[in-house]
Structure prediction request, 496 residues.
Amino acid sequence: MSVNSGVSSDLLQHFLDAASRGDSKKVTMMLKHRPELLNQRGERGWGALMLAARNGQLETAQILLKHRCDTSVMNSSGQTARDVALFWGHTHISRLLSSSEVPALSYKPIQECEVYFNRPVLDRMSQKRSDSTWISKKLTSPGSVFLLFDHLSPLVRSAESEEGQVHVCKLRSAAVQEIMENHQQKLLIFLGVQRHRESSLMKDHEDDDDDALIAWFAIGIEEDCEGFLKTQDPGCFFLQQAMPGLLRMSDEDAGQELRITRLLSKGSRDAGVVAQARSVLAWHSRYQFCPTCGSKTKVEDSGYKRTCLKAACSSLQGIHNTSYPRVDPVVIMLVLHPDGNQCLLGRKKVFPPGMFSCLAGFVEPGESIEAAVRREVQEESSVQVPDGTLITSSLFILILATYILSINLVLQVGAVQYLCSQVWPMPSCLMIGCICVAMTMEINPDQDEIEEARWFTRQQVIEALVKDKRAVFSTPPNQTVAHQLIKHWIGFNSNL
Prediction:
């Protein structure tokens, strides 16, 4: 038991037992004489408020809140009193706790490596981008790795052992020599150096020896590549459809590639590198002319800067966001029912048949994540989010760019919690994933945007996730943050 000095185990047990049984008189009496009992916790970190919430003891919960019981405390399983009430279906208790002064959600963050596109494979070594001598040396190094893109489509080959999957082709410097020498309309991006070194290449080298670093580059071309493809493995091709093609990347090596020790974590290692390269190349395709004066720009810093060629341009004075690759932040949320056993999902007419997903929207200039969540929920779903009801860890919202929903819902949303983020190279978004709780349940979909929006029970969501024959809908692909938000909610509270 978690007991402070001066509070015996027997006394604490009597207090917790009274709260669990709803003996309000005894709870009041004990707090009057021993106020230090209020936030004491027993086995597995369970306190009086959690036990009252577990057993639906409304009056006892009200008394504990009146004495300013801490609603943010979590037990050993990571649940607050409100989480406990939601799981056991005591809506009246959860609403009471939701309306308390500090609303709380206690979902544990999703580990970064579990989210597709997020695996940090390369050390970007930004300090080397302006070192032309070092870059030139790495461009001719036989160990360097090159990823080739044609109009943002990466060069890949089919995975022989995995149906529907593709491997990105990792080329050596000799394989791209003809492109480097003869293709005028090419763009070269230094991506970074390999974090996990191959022992056969790295042995006998010190950590600070630049010769031992394996550099990765991306080459973007917009010319006829038929001649180049004929010199490569006949199975190589440029991925034509970004979606869902980019979600089907596997880490098995292909073509003239570098073999790397595989990392023991979820998601595709190569997908993260492709996402980085594609996002930077997409930025270059849109900023060939200066947004300030319209003059042509030149590439600098190994692909991470564009500088206006007009000497009098104001963009040359100071630091401007038009000179560097930009990222568009997007918020995406899973809206939970107050009873904790349902979530709100919707579908657009362009979705695959039967698929439902989360709500999402772009963050506007001069807007915080919290403000964006508040605005998007109101604009896209008519949900009022009162100021001051969002905890500081307000959740970032993610989803497929094509799966962003616009729904007209008559709901009120309480606490919002940040859960995870995801790189999304369509063309260069950062998805910020959140969990939030609705205070009302009426739904009025905007028929111009939404085909259907509805509440799904926990059991229905589980059936959809496991692709049960009884499933009434399907979820977004598991590589999306929308899927991760849904799955994370299902796993939460599973041990209560």
